[in-house]
Amino acid sequence: AIYEGTFRTPDYFIYDPFDGNSLQGWHLGADQRYHSLERNERGWLWCETLGYWLGTWEGTIDRETAIWARFYDPEGNLIPLPEEAAQEQAAAAQEQAAAAQEQAAAAQEQAAAAQEQLNATQQALEAERQRSQRLAARLREMGIEL
């Protein structure tokens, strides 16, 4: 009655974590009265104010494994808790760093291959220059000037 009449809380939910089937909810209607929410096929309740589903989830939070009340987006994806989101961001950053490291290693390999090719080309040019000088010297010995 306090939430309905005094606080006028738009959506009101109760859940007993020791009874995984206890999730109940109400929405404050235009008549300023609470109306019981119907569960969907998953047993979740729609929170109109937030635009999320409220359902149960079995897992570990703060090293305690239980059946928790958790929010899900309209497509049914679990909304991460702040620490879960931080872990996901850290994992994504680590993956990006690993990918950047792989790209840097690949670029370094390409640079090394290009340097090897440049060295080989320079050696070939030097060999050709020396061959050209020998040929020119031979032609001069024969009395032929270019």
In short, what is this structure?
With 146 residues, this protein is an alpha+beta fold.
On the 0 to 100 scale, the average pLDDT is 92
User: Helical region count?
Assistant: 2
**Widest sheet: strand ordering:** 1-2-3
Which percent bin holds the helix content?
A: 40-55%
Based on CA inertia axes, which overall geometry fits?
rod-shaped
Decide which structural class fits the backbone: alpha+beta
**Unreliable residue stretches:** none
Description:
By secondary structure, the chain is an alpha+beta fold. It has two helices and six strands; from the N terminus they run H-E-E-E-E-E-E-H. The strands form two sheets. A three-stranded antiparallel beta sheet has the order 1-2-3, with no helix packed on it. A three-stranded antiparallel beta sheet has the order 4-5-6, with no helix packed on it. Strand 4 and strand 5 form a beta hairpin. The protein is rod-shaped.
Notable characteristics:
146 residues; alpha+beta; three-stranded antiparallel sheet; rod-shaped
What is the strand and helix layout of this fold?
Layout (H helix, E strand, L loop, with lengths): L1 H6 L3 E4 L9 E5 L5 E3 L8 E3 L4 E10 L2 E9 L9 H60 L5
Antiparallel strand pairs: 1-2, 2-3, 4-5, 5-6
